[in-house]
Amino acid sequence: MKLNFELNGKPVKVDVPERTTLADCIRHHLLQTGTHVGCEHGVCGACTVIVDGAAVRSCLMLAVQAEDACVTTVEGISNENSLTPLQACFRKHHALQCGFCTPGMLITAHALLTEEPGAGKDRIRDVLSGNICRCTGYIPIVEAVYEARSAYARK
Ligand code: FES
Ligand code: FES
Question: What is the average per-residue pLDDT within 143-154?
């Protein structure tokens, strides 16, 4: 099935079987490998991407549902040669260890802070509760997202 949508600010065309998930389409057909799956049934948040402004589980969405949408992956919220403020805060606070959850955490945090740059720690904890991390104990992640808020403050 031929699809057209926008991926990280660029128009893409892709031909995938009808049952392809958005996660598999992004990773295996469009080779944006920052997006990956963990549980494949909507629980872990590792596959989170932003579709038309909302953080969604790309393992639960079919690629065909992204037709004409704007999709953003972790590559789309990254810079080529330097860390973004959010990434720098993750590094500073040791908010990642194995890194498996990190793309989903970054995308979820980015979507939250874009909408709610003043989010408090309870709100951050609440929103990130849909993303599972087996390594960090979550506290460094919450601290990192909390510190990154200033980069999203509305001017
Ligand atoms: S792989 Fe999508 S939520 Fe776990
Ligand atoms: S850093 Fe390993 S799962 Fe989160």
Answer: 95
Question: Measured between alpha carbons, how far is 5 from 1 in angstroms, rounded to an integer?
Answer: 13
Residues with CB under 6 A from ligand 2: 96-101, 133-136
Amino acid at 49: V
Q: Phi then psi for 9, rounded to 5 degrees?
A: 85, 0
42 Cβ closer than 6 Å to some ligand 1 atom: yes
Residue 132 CA: nearest ligand 1 atom is 4
Residues 6+ apart with CB under 8 A from 47: 23, 35, 36, 37, 38, 40, 57, 58, 59, 104
Indicate whether residue 44 lines ligand 1 (CB < 6 A). Answer: yes
- For ligand 1, say whether the CB of 104 is within 6 Å of any of its atoms: no
The number of beta carbons lying within 10 Å of the beta carbon of residue 77 is: 20
Q: Closest ligand 1 atom to the C-alpha of 38?
A: 1
* Closest-lying ligand 1 atom to the alpha carbon of residue 43: 3
Specify burial of residue 95 (Cβ count, 10 A radius: 0-12, 13-18, 19+). buried
pTM, two decimal places: 0.96
Instruction: Read off the pLDDT of residues 112-140 as tens digits, 9 standing for 90 and up.
Output: 999 999 999 999 999 999 999 999 999 99
